[in-house]
Design goal:
- The protein has 208 residues and is mainly alpha-helical.
- It has a domain of 141 residues.
- Helix content is 77%, strand content 0%.
- α4 runs antiparallel to α7, α4 packs across α8 and α5 packs antiparallel against α6.
- The radius of gyration is 17 Å and the shape is globular.
- The protein starts with 7 loop residues before the first helix and ends with a helix.
- The model has no long low-confidence stretch (mean pLDDT 92).
């Protein structure tokens, strides 16, 4: 993505609209099937918006060479899963219990075939869509204005945390911290797939 592509930030913000709309619609749903329908629709809508812009589509589909060993990838992912599941989970629960009014909605409890569809497809879609939007595309766009250092890491992670606005302040804090680690992981590895895999396994540990 070139710094000359001045419309890229507008397309990035446009991609957030279906994701935000689906969050608002989900708050009104008690049926798990309808809940995940709107969840998937918002994420697929965001990916479609990004795919409509050639420069963003090119950046999103680019395959980078891994710059670290697979052993280091394994250590990174294992560390991320443990930090989020134990430390992040404790932070989320502690803050949300102290400030319950900030929790506007919860994830539905799924069962039967719906559960397996969500585990195999839904959580993969969550990981891929969020990493495309908040790590890969956000990095490409915000690097133009912030460089590729710590300011970029903080700003994109705050944006990622804010995306979890409806799940309570505890989850916002947890998501922001994990956003920092995931962006650092992307910068360190230079490849996108390990970060998506790490995000997927983090969510599997939380939801499965």
């Amino acid at each position: 993505m070139s710094s000359r592509d001045h419309n890229a930030p507008a397309w990035f913000m446009a991609a957030l609209i279906p994701m935000l709309a689906s969050q608002i619609l989900r708050l009104q749903q008690s049926d798990p099937a309808i809940w995940i329908f709107w969840d998937y629709a918002g994420r697929l809508g965001a990916l479609a918006m990004l795919a409509a812009r050639p420069s963003i589509r090119s950046a999103a589909s680019q395959w980078e060479k891994l710059q670290i060993s697979r052993w280091e990838v394994t250590l990174w992912i294992g560390g991320l899963v443990l930090v989020d599941h134990y430390l992040g989970g404790w932070v989320r629960r502690t803050i949300n219990v102290a400030l319950p009014a900030t929790v506007l909605g919860t994830y539905p409890r799924l069962s039967g075939s719906l559960y397996f569809v969500d585990i195999l497809f839904g959580i993969a879609l969550v990981a891929y869509s969020e990493e495309i939007v908040f790590r890969r595309c956000a990095r490409r766009i915000f690097t133009i204005y912030l460089g590729d250092g710590y300011r970029l890491v903080i700003v994109t992670s705050l944006l990622f945390g804010a995306y979890h606005w409806w799940t309570g302040l505890g989850n916002i804090v947890e998501a922001t911290v994990m956003g920092i680690f995931l962006m650092l992981f992307l910068q360190r590895s230079a490849a996108f797939w390990p970060v998506v895999l790490g995000h997927y396994l983090i969510d599997i540990a939380d939801f499965a």
